[in-house]
Backbone:
DNA sequence: CCCTTAATAT
DNA sequence: GATATTAAGG
């Protein structure tokens, strides 16, 4: 372990890491390499110090993740103002991160746990940068002691332990500590696939971390790992189906002002849906993915909806209007007010796209065109909806949906194909949207986000999207459960 | 105990 | 930004 005699001694290294244990380990290893070490657990202080005492450091080793300042930021600042070689260091070895380090000007990227071998040669970075290195000057250790309030400084081990024994001991400790560093799990699509398989095998209701872990049989994968991933997975599923965590309405039905029965909708390329039929006025349904694809009418309606939603209903004012053909609007307003009976799995079954504005017209027979908003959780008898509709309340119904964040990043790798890669071509009638069918007779229509559709072979009728049941018995436009929906996308989107 | 969720740390 | 860890509640 001894350093060869001609080894450059006295390189002045600043180590920055918020983790005191890492700091200690690094310090010891660097000492063994005969470097002079200054440690600092706080990036901003390190920066201050580096700047105030230019020419007293030769090299900086900085962690990437730090609470007060991103390691990359520090790297950037040093590159800007000082001319020091900087080595980045992180437990995360993802290529993108390493690349980021390099592109930001790091001269090296050490993967934690750092081995002492990797530290022996870091002096070369200094030589490379400066062209030369004067190992003999000795202006560095001055008044480090006075700085102790600022940084934790140890240029030598204190204490009375015998040096030799101590070094051996610390070597052992270092090895120990290093091996204890658990590598973080990288959820590759491969691994994720196994995860999903396990989940499917169990059924989403039964899929809990422990069982999933047991099925996956990946060595070293802990229950916590799975739990964490499951948490993310569920969150993604929810969002995929439009459940919002924030209180933003995501979709609405809207009745036309003067429409009459028989409106049809066509799905057009690019995911827009246009209404046609007799005397359709304004409503164009859009399966859009961004707000600006909504037409004016719905924007206005959404605004009104938002305005009225809070003051009109409290949490427990949901009403039940009938016995059959229930449509539970439990997620009418995603977020706070819905008293969602979340199953133990935490996954809610999606009901319809929000029928809020449609309901405004028909609910309780109140002045049909007056704004009336149902509370989240309301149960609405579809036959009432239908009769109201037929009575002239809101013949032409257009549907609009926007999703600001339809595909969370975390989901991208398994619903990999961008939905847009399957353009929806102009189709015939989308009878799923035909009000005449609001009679409980179909229970398979689902609404796909944006320009996404089934293969023709999967469409018994043009434009009708079907889904192998998870929602039988619900007569309405339905979403499958988020989980089913996800699997569904997996099926219909080519690999 | 184990599970979920949210918050926070790395 | 992704994953881990922690805290709290069921």
Residues:
């Amino acid at each position: 372990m001894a350093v060869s005699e001609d080894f450059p001694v006295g390189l002045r290294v600043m180590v920055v890491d918020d983790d005191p244990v890492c700091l200690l380990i690094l310090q010891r290893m660097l000492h063994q390499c005969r470097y002079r070490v200054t440690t600092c657990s706080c990036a901003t202080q390190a920066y201050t110090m580096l700047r105030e005492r230019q020419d007293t450091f030769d090299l900086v080793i900085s962690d990437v993740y730090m609470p007060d300042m991103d390691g990359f930021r520090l790297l950037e600042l040093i590159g800007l103002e000082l001319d020091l070689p900087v080595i980045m260091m992180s437990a995360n070895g993802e290529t993108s991160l390493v690349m980021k380090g390099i592109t930001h000007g790091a001269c090296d990227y050490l993967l934690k746990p750092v081995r002492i071998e990797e530290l022996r040669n870091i002096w070369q970075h200094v030589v490379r940068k400066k062209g030369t290195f004067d190992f003999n000057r000795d202006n560095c250790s001055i008044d480090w002691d006075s700085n102790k309030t600022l940084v934790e400084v140890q240029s030598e081990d204190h204490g009375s332990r015998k040096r030799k024994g101590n070094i051996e001991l610390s070597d052992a400790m270092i090895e120990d500590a290093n091996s204890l560093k658990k590598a973080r799990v990288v959820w590759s699509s491969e691994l994720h696939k196994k995860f999903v398989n396990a989940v499917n095998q169990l059924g989403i209701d039964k899929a809990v971390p422990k069982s999933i872990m047991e099925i996956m049989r990946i060595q070293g994968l802990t229950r916590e790992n799975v739990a964490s991933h499951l948490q993310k997975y569920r969150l993604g599923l929810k969002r995929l189906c439009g459940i919002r965590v924030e209180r933003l309405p995501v979709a609405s039905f809207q009745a036309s002002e003067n429409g009459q029965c028989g409106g049809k909708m066509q799905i057009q390329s690019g995911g827009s849906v246009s209404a046609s039929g007799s005397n359709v006025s304004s409503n164009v349904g859009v399966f859009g993915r961004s707000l600006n694809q909504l037409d004016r009418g719905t924007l206005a309606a959404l605004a009104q909806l938002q305005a009225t939603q809070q003051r009109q209903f409290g949490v427990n004012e949901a009403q039940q209007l009938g016995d059959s053909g229930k449509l539970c609007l439990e997620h009418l307003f995603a977020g706070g007010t819905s008293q969602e009976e979340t199953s133990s799995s935490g996954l809610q079954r999606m009901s319809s796209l929000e029928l809020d504005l449609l309901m405004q017209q028909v609910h309780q027979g109140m002045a049909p065109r007056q704004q009336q908003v149902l509370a989240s959780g309301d149960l609405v008898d579809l036959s009432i909806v239908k009769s109201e509709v037929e009575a002239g309340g809101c013949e032409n119904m257009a549907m609009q949906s926007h999703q600001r964040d339809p595909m969370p990043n975390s989901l991208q790798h398994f619903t990999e194909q961008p939905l847009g890669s399957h353009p929806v071509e102009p189709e015939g009638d989308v009878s799923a949207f035909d009000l005449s069918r609001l009679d409980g007779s179909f229970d398979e229509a689902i609404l796909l986000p944006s320009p996404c559709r089934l293969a023709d072979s999967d469409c018994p009728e043009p434009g009708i999207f079907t889904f192998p049941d998870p929602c039988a018995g619900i007569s309405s436009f339905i979403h499958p459960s988020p989980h089913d929906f996800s699997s569904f996308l997996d099926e219909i989107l080519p690999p």
